From TrEMBL:
One of its GO terms (biological process) is fatty acid catabolic process. Signal peptide: none annotated. Pfam families: 4HBT. It comes from Emberiza melanocephala. PROSITE patterns: HOTDOG_ACOT. GO terms for cellular component: cytosol. Residues 8-126 form the HotDog ACOT-type domain. PANTHER family: ACYL COENZYME A THIOESTER HYDROLASE, CYTOSOLIC ACYL COENZYME A THIOESTER HYDROLASE. Keywords: Hydrolase, Serine esterase. It comes from the Eukaryota. The lineage of its organism: Eukaryota, Metazoa, Chordata, Craniata, Vertebrata. This is Acyl-CoA thioesterase 7.
Length: 131
């Protein structure tokens, strides 16, 4: 059975520098860019968790965005550090908490810009119709 409950892997972090094409004319990074990074980090940690269990190979699919908070803007030239951690597992779903922190690489200043809670479900890679 994909996604059987068990020990959860450690938190992961995905980072990248924000570029002009990630932002509006004022230099503020688009919300969609941040949301995409949040979902990617959640998918990575959830898929790793699901495949660390006994059972058929699977990929984690986003089933629900429970909450997303935009706390502070991020700007071009800052590094987005997206960290994801599994906070709940069951046989059929995984809850992931994601935090986004911006880092000004010139000054070293860091601030939390976003927080999100996401739910993923395992999809079988052998039988694409099986959740």
């Amino acid at each position: 059975e994909p996604g059987a409950a068990g020990p959860s892997p450690a938190a992961i972090q995905v980072s990248r520098i924000m570029r002009p094409d990630d932002a509006n004319i004022a230099g503020n990074v688009h919300g969609g860019t941040i949301l995409k990074m949040i979902e990617e980090a959640g998918a990575i940690i959830s898929t790793r968790h699901c495949n660390s269990q006994a059972g058929e190979p699977c990929v984690a699919a986003l089933a629900r965005v429970e909450r997303t908070d935009f706390l502070s803007p991020m700007c071009i030239g800052e590094v987005a550090n997206v960290s994801a951690e599994i906070t709940y597992t069951s046989r059929h779903s995984v809850e992931v908490q994601v935090n986004v922190m911006s880092e000004n690489i010139l000054t070293g200043a860091k601030k939390v810009t976003n927080k999100a809670t996401l739910w993923y479900v395992p999809l079988s890679l052998k039988n694409v119709n099986k959740v």
